[in-house]
Amino acid sequence: MVRNRISNDIDLVQPTQYIVPKNRVAKKPPLEPGLLPPFSPLPIHNEYEYGEPSLPDYIINKDPWQLFNLFWLKKLIN
User: Fold this and answer.
1) For 11-16, what is the mean pLDDT?
2) pTM as predicted
3) Are 67 and 61 in contact (CB under 8 A)?
4) Rounded Cα gap, residues 66 and 60, in angstroms
5) CA 43, CA 68: separation in Å to the nearest integer?
6) Inter-residue contact 45 to 34 (CB < 8 Å)
């Protein structure tokens, strides 16, 4: 069953209205990127070792319940 409906979309281009010209030329490739200017990385002054969590002193990082309570208040859960 063929439907010949007209769309409500004013930006829709019907396939019959779009004709590709025969002299169409492909786009030029993008330019090669230039060299980056010299820079120094941002220093990060972190007192913790890599992979060590930054938790308050009263939290034991092996206790899942204490970690859960960091994000969810008891009042909200009740």
Assistant:
1) 76
2) 0.34
3) yes
4) 7
5) 32
6) no
How many Cα neighbours within 13 Å face the side chain of 24? Answer: 6
Average pLDDT over residues 25-31: 82
Tokens of 13: 């281009």
Query: Do 29 and 37 form a contact (C-beta atoms < 8 A)?
Result: no
Cα–Cα distance, 65 to 2 (Å, whole number):
62
Q: Is the pLDDT of residue 73 over 90?
A: no
| Residue corresponding to tokens 């002299």 | 23
User: Residue 70's closest CA among 4, 62, 45, 59?
Assistant: 59
Contact 66, 59 (CB under 8 A): yes
Mean pLDDT of 16-35: 81
The radius of gyration computed from the CA coordinates of the chain, to the nearest angstrom, equals 31
65 three-state secondary structure: helix
